[in-house]
Amino acid sequence: MELQIILEEQEDIGFGFMEVGSITRYPYGGNRRPWNVRLPRDRSLIVNYGLKNDGAVVARARIAKQIRTIPLIINIAKTNNPKIKGAGTVEDYVESFKLLEALADIVNINISCPNTGDGVLLCEDLPLLEQLLSALEAQHPTKPIFLKLKPDISDLTLTELVTLVKNYPSITGFIISNLSKQRALLKHTDSNYSNRYQGGISGQPIRALATSMIRRVYQLTNGHYPIIGLGGIFSAADAYEKIKAGASLVELVTGLIYEGPGVVKQINQGLVALLKQDGYRSISEAVGKSAS
Fold first, then answer.
1. Is the overall model pTM greater than 0.90, yes or no?
2. Which CATH architecture has domain 3-286?
C-alpha cells in the first residue's frame, strides 16, 4: 500500500499525526518468522520484525513523492547488523538522519528496539549515546528530534540519560515507550507458549510501566520536554492516563489491531468527555496533572 493512501486513511479515521518506521540506513529482510504473535488473553503482541525495512534511500524516495496531509514522524534506528557497532553505529544513525530529516516534521531516534542482532540499546549504553547526540548536534538539525525509550530502564539510568540529553538542545522530546522483553509482564498467557517466540511485548502488559516512565521523565524535565505516550492504549481512559502522567500526544498500534479503526473515534470522543468532567478546556491543561 502506498504511503499516501496510509496517510489519508490515518486522517480519515481520526488520527492527527502518524509515524513511519523504524527506517534504517541499510535494508533488512526481518528476523526469523513469526514477526507477530497475538496473546489475546493479555491483550498483547509479541513483536519480532527486527527492523524489517527497505532502507533509508528507498524510504526517502517513497516519502518524497507523497502529499502531506497530517504531520509525519520519521522513526530512525540502527541497521540490524551486529557487525555495525561503536563508531559505526553512530555513523549508521547519522547517515539515515541526513537522508530523511528534511522530509520529517519530527525525527524519532529509536534507541531502544529490543529485537536487533547485536542486542545493544543506546538508551542503556550512555557513552555511545553521547557520541550519537554529539554527532546529531553537529548536523545543525532544523527539525525537532525525539528519543524513543523502552519502558523498563532503571531509574538510575533514566535519570542519567535525561541529564545527558539536557546538554544537547537539538533533542527536544521523548517517545515513551517501546516494547519490553520481560515475559513476567504476561499475567494470563502460559509461559511455555510465550517463551517459544522471540521478540518484545506490546499492549496491555506494558501499560503501567510506560505510564510510570512518562511520569518520571515529566518530573525529571519539569515538563519542559514534550512527550509522546504509547503502550497499552485501548480506550480514552488509557489515553487520558498517559496525558495526565505527562504526555502531550499519544499513539497506539496494538489497541488498533485488537479494537479496530473505530477505537480512534471512541478515544477522541471519550477524551472530550473526560476533559469536560475534570473542568479542562484543552488537552494541554491536563498534561502532567498526575505527575506532581
1. yes
2. Alpha-Beta Barrel (3.20)
